[in-house]
Write a structure and sequence with these properties.
This protein is an alpha/beta fold. It contains eleven helices and eleven strands. Belongs to the eIF-2B alpha/beta/delta subunits family. R15P isomerase subfamily.
Length: 325
């Protein structure tokens, strides 16, 4: 093997292709696959020197990262594993990298259940919880509360335009939780009945801003006015150390057909040209940290302003490209 150039293992390249083609999808699944790929690269490396070994691991990380650079869990997994790479010899570097990847995978497999247990401690018997969209992390808190014998009720926003709230309502009913399904615009009215607002997160910025399904921010503002605490449930793979504030995150704009059909568009436009009608469908919004009472993770619950400390503990002081020296 020519050690002058980094060599990426073929299986790592195959994993990268699967992530890029969305054969591997979902935050936790992507993170697990990335950690496994780095462990495989370390195990199979034939590097003759520690420096070449490090370069090969960084090249593998770069290959994986470039598949889905906006998927927060991917660079977080890479950072976590590379940060644990230590030793003076190739053998030591190999062993430490594999051990770090295995540690990450074990923690990841247990994260949601731990998060649920922590989140359920904030809920009391008889509480009414308002939800928005569909989040398995948020549902894990409610499931743990039910398993603890607490009687919980839910007010579920349907969450237009895709109505993911219907999924939440169905899964809560499967748990035996009484559900009131409401249209999004009725949230302020029903907050008078709620003891908590519980939502998930797509990602969380270093200042504690929460990027989540569109409508989360407005719900949080209304909840603050009503004195209803807002709890965000998110595994640590959702933390976004590269983003100092949530307002620097690019918001995905989804297809207008989720909002109006071609027939509805034609009806709205009437006899006027279509170029005078713009339909926008942002997928997410940003909730400032002042409207969030607690961020619950598998590592514990934190006030939003403290989340940056957890990021540093998990991923180090350095952000940016996870393969950087």
């Amino acid at each position: 093997m020519n050690d002058s150039l980094p060599a990426v293992d073929p299986d790592v390249a195959a994993t990268a292709d699967d992530i890029a083609e969305m054969e591997i999808r979902g935050a936790a699944t992507i993170a697990d696959a990335a950690a496994e790929a780095l462990a495989r690269q370390a195990e199979r490396s034939e590097a003759a020197s520690p420096e070449v070994f490090r370069r090969q691991l960084r090249a593998a990380a770069k290959t994986l990262y470039e598949t889905r650079p906006t998927a927060v869990s991917l660079p977080n997994a890479l950072r976590y594993v590379l940060r644990g790479m230590s030793g003076e010899t190739v053998s030591e570097l190999r062993a430490s990298t594999i051990a770090r990847a295995e540690e990450f995978q074990v923690d990841l497999s247990q994260a949601q259940s731990k998060l649920g247990e922590i989140g359920s401690n904030r809920l009391r018997d008889g509480d009414v919880v308002m939800t928005h969209c569909h989040s398995t992390d948020a549902l894990s808190c409610l499931e743990a509360a039910v398993e603890d014998g607490k009687e919980i009720e839910a007010i579920v926003k349907e969450t237009r335009p895709r109505k993911q709230g219907h999924i939440t309502a169905r899964q809560l009913r499967e748990l035996g939780v009484p559900v009131t399904l409401v249209v999004d615009n009725a949230a302020r009215r029903y907050l008078d009945r709620a003891d908590h607002v519980l939502v998930g997160a797509d990602s969380i910025a270093a200042d504690g801003s929460v990027i989540n399904k569109i409508g989360t921010s407005g719900l949080a503002v209304n909840a603050r006015e009503r004195g209803v605490p807002v709890m965000v449930a998110a595994q640590t793979i959702k933390l976004h150390p590269d983003t100092m504030t949530g307002h620097t995150v690019e918001i995905e704009m989804r297809a207008e057909r989720e909002v109006v059909s071609d027939e509805q568009r034609a009806d709205i436009a009437g006899e006027r040209a279509d170029d005078g009608l713009v339909v926008e469908n942002p997928a997410f919004d940003v909730t400032p940290p002042r409207y969030v009472d607690a961020i619950v993770t598998e590592r514990g619950q934190f006030p939003p302003e403290s989340i940056v400390i957890l990021m540093r503990e998990l991923f180090g002081e350095t952000t940016g490209e996870p393969w950087a020296p």
